């Protein structure tokens, strides 16, 4: 056991767990529909908005910021799009929703730096405020989306058999991966997250970088909101609200540091899929959603525990 | 040492004062440092060394007095301004980002972008060019054996110090202020750093060295500027004074009043 845990580092944890989970469920559920392309594509569709949320949080964390408002931004963006779609069409509705997300992120970043209050607190405030606001805005009703182009773009359709939602997930993951590996902004984000004093001493504009990080996080959360609304063909104030814990658990197991300065885009994607597969497998095995919630809590604690242990060594 | 064309004043500080709310930390600091010179900045704790360094680094604005770089009066109001003027401060903590690789650290905020116009606009990095230049720099400045892709946290203390110095050179610094560069190093690593300091000064860089190791100062430095309670009490060629005399100046006394005991304390 000691030997195994020494080999499983923060970076590789998600791969081992992923394979292990798939193998276990394949055996346990061999008589059910678990091991089928259809089921797996379904998992990919269901988890797509959550993957995008998790990538959003990765971006914020890279610069050492925590963004708890992503769940609320998802709901807001979905609702705004749903409300604007009938009158203004897909372009204006999406652009407004995405810009609003980016602006909320920038506001979070600015406020946190201006007041010198940790982003955790600021975004907690923004989250609760927006949770209230989307309830007010929607009147607790869900708003149906009938706009065909919107549903084709963000919804549950497919292109040559590949779900559009999967294309979105891969496109966003590849873009963000490139930013962190091949673009100057990525270096500055990570430098700021790892050691803000040193980055500043080298002339990196850490204030600008942190506001950009929060703004990108808000933008991606809003995009997740559009994907959510597209998949559900309606917007509801609860969209994304309960997914924050899934996102945190996925990020922790995916190898992204919750303390900043380190991201793991593919680990995060796999982390969300892993939780999706666990949910799916548990449902097929006859467990209820109560068990799924408990499991997410356990994953979060175990993953963070292993990450911190690896860091100490 | 023979000096001819190199004898130009790179850095000149004239009657520098710094008041904080309730204290007067710098009370008239004046000294010069020439191109290619290694100048020791000496003084006891509280003599004003850190405040002076922070003024040079653009972290603090002096209340009164002038700083001249290559003969021109400058207001150094930000770290970026200091960098643009060719001043680089290598702090004791080195300000390296330990999680990032050597080459990433060397080029932080000095990244070489891709030559393609579109990619350049996006801020796309030219990793190969950076690696090549980093390799060249390391070879030229005695950093062979430092693995470029390794995170800085995996390097020895001496190698980290060398990376910090090379980064300063790469940032275009020709006035390098170093805070106790060898204090935490073993003797072999210490020698490596000293070799690099000598090499840089021979190539025309001006080095301002803060050190408590008077033996090292005597070996490495051309001149010593001694601060006492925020004032310059001496600006002298190291060869012309004994370590004992330097110590006396640092404690604000005349050299006669220093006992051998106090000296041995410093030597350790």
Question: What are the SSEs and their pairings?
Answer:
The complex is a heterodimer of chains A (313) and B (268).
Chain A: H1 2-7, H2 13-28, H3 37-62, H4 70-114, H5 119-138, E1 143-144, H6 148-154, E2 158-159, E3 162-163, H7 164-182, H8 184-194, H9 196-201, H10 206-232, E4 234-235, H11 244-254, H12 265-284, H13 289-312
Helix pairs in contact in A: 2-12, 3-7, 3-10, 3-11, 3-12, 4-5, 4-10, 6-10, 7-8, 8-10, 11-12, 11-13, 12-13
Chain B: E1 9-19, E2 24-34, E3 38-43, H1 49-57, E4 64-69, E5 72-74, H2 79-84, E6 87-90, H3 102-106, H4 117-122, H5 127-140, H6 157-170, E7 175-179, H7 187-202, E8 206-210, H8 214-220, E9 223-228, E10 231-237, H9 243-250, H10 260-267
Parallel strand pairs in B: 3-8, 3-9, 6-7, 7-8
Antiparallel strand pairs in B: 1-2, 1-4, 4-5, 9-10
Helix pairs in contact in B: 6-7
Describe the structure.
- The complex is a heterodimer of chains A (313) and B (268).
- Chain A is 76% helix and 3% strand.
- Chain A has helices at residues 2-7, 13-28, 37-62, 70-114, 119-138, 148-154, 164-182, 184-194, 196-201, 206-232, 244-254, 265-284, 289-312, and strands spanning 143-144, 158-159, 162-163, 234-235.
- A two-stranded antiparallel ribbon of chain A has the order 1-4. A two-stranded antiparallel sheet of chain A has the order 2-3.
- The mean pLDDT of chain A is 90.
- Chain A has a single domain (2-312), classed as ABC transporter involved in vitamin B12 uptake, BtuC (Orthogonal Bundle).
- Chain B has a single domain (9-267), classed as P-loop containing nucleotide triphosphate hydrolases (Rossmann fold).
- Chain B has helices spanning 49-57, 79-84, 102-106, 117-122, 127-140, 157-170, 187-202, 214-220, 243-250, 260-267, and strands at 9-19, 24-34, 38-43, 64-69, 72-74, 87-90, 175-179, 206-210, 223-228, 231-237.
- Chain B has a 6-stranded mixed sheet with strand order 6-7-8-3-9-10, sandwiched between helices. In chain B, strands 2-1-4-5 form a 4-stranded antiparallel sheet, with helices on one face.
């Amino acid at each position: 056991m000691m030997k195994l845990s020494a080999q499983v580092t923060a970076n590789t944890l998600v791969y081992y767990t992923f394979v292990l989970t798939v193998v276990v469920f394949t055996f346990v559920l061999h008589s059910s529909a678990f091991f089928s392309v259809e089921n797996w594509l379904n998992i990919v569709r269901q988890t797509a908005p959550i993957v995008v949320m998790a990538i959003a949080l990765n971006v914020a964390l890279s610069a050492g910021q925590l963004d708890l408002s992503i769940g609320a931004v998802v709901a807001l963006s979905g609702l705004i799009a749903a409300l604007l779609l009938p009158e203004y069409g897909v372009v204006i509705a999406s652009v407004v929703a995405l810009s609003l997300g980016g602006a909320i992120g920038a506001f979070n970043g600015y406020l946190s730096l201006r007041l010198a209050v940790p982003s955790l607190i600021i975004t907690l405030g923004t989250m609760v405020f927006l949770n209230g606001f989307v309830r007010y805005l929607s009147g607790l009703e869900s708003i149906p989306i009938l706009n065909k182009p919107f549903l084709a773009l963000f919804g549950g359709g497919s292109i040559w058999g590949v779900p559009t939602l999967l294309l979105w997930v891969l496109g966003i993951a590849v873009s963000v991966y490139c930013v962190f590996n091949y673009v100057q902004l990525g270096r500055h984000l990570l430098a700021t997250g790892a050691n803000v004093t040193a980055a500043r001493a080298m002339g990196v504009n850490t204030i600008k970088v942190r506001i950009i990080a929060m703004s990108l996080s808000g933008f991606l959360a809003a995009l997740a909101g559009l994907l959510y609304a597209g998949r559900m063909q309606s917007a509801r104030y609860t969209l994304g609200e309960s997914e924050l814990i899934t996102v945190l658990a996925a990020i922790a197991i995916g190898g992204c540091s919750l303390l900043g300065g380190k991201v793991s885009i593919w680990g995060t994607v796999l982390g969300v899929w892993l939780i999706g597969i666990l949910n799916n497998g548990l449902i097929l095995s006859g467990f209820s959603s109560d068990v799924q919630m408990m499991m997410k809590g356990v994953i979060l604690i175990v993953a963070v525990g292993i990450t911190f242990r690896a860091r100490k060594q | 040492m023979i000096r001819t064309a190199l004898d130009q004043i790179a850095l000149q500080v004239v009657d520098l004062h710094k008041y904080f709310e309730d204290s007067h930390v710098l009370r008239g600091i004046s000294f010069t440092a020439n191109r290619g010179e290694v100048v020791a900045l000496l003084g006891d704790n509280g003599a004003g060394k850190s405040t002076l360094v922070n003024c040079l680094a653009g972290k603090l604005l002096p209340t009164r007095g002038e700083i001249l770089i290559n003969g021109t009066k400058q207001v150094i109001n930000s770290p970026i301004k200091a960098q643009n003027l060719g001043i680089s401060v290598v702090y004791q903590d080195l300000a390296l980002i330990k999680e990032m690789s050597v080459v990433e650290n060397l080029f932080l905020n000095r990244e070489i972008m891709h030559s393609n116009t579109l990619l350049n606009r996006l801020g796309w990095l030219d990793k190969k060019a950076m690696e090549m230049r980093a390799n060249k720099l390391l070879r030229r400045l005695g950093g062979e054996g430092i693995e470029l892709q390794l995170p800085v946290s995996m390097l020895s203390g001496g190698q980290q110090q060398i990376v910090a110095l090379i980064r300063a050179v790469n940032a275009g610094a020709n006035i390098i202020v170093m805070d106790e560069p060898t204090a935490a190093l073993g003797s072999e690593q210490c020698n490596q750093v000293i070799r690099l300091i000598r090499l840089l000064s021979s190539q025309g860089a001006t080095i301002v060295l803060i050190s408590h190791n008077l033996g090292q100062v005597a070996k490495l430095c051309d001149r010593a500027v001694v601060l006492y309670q925020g004032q310059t009490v001496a600006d002298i060629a190291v060869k012309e004074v004994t370590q004992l005399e330097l110590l006396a100046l640092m404690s604000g006394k005349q050299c006669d009043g220093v006992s051998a005991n106090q000296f041995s304390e410093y030597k350790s």
